[in-house]
Amino acid sequence: MRSIHSKSNSAMNRLVRRALLVLSLALTAPLAIAAAGVGALAGAAFNPAAFDFWVDSPVMGPIKTRVLRAADGNTDRVVYALDGMRAGQDLNGWEIETNVAETLASWNINVVMPVGGQSSFYSDWNAPSEFFGIPAGTGSANTGSGATDALSGGPGKSYRYTWETFLTNDLRWALRDRLGFNPNRNGIFGLSMGGSAALTLAAYHPDQFSFAGSFSGYLNVSAPGMREAIRLAMIDAGGYNVDSMAPPWGPQWLRMDPFVFAPSLIANNTRLYIAAASGRPTAQDGPNMGTVNGMALEALALANTRSFQVRMATLGANNVTYSFPEYGIHAWNNWQDEANRMLPDLSANIG
Question: 333 is in which domain, residue-wise?
Answer without folding.
Answer: 2-348
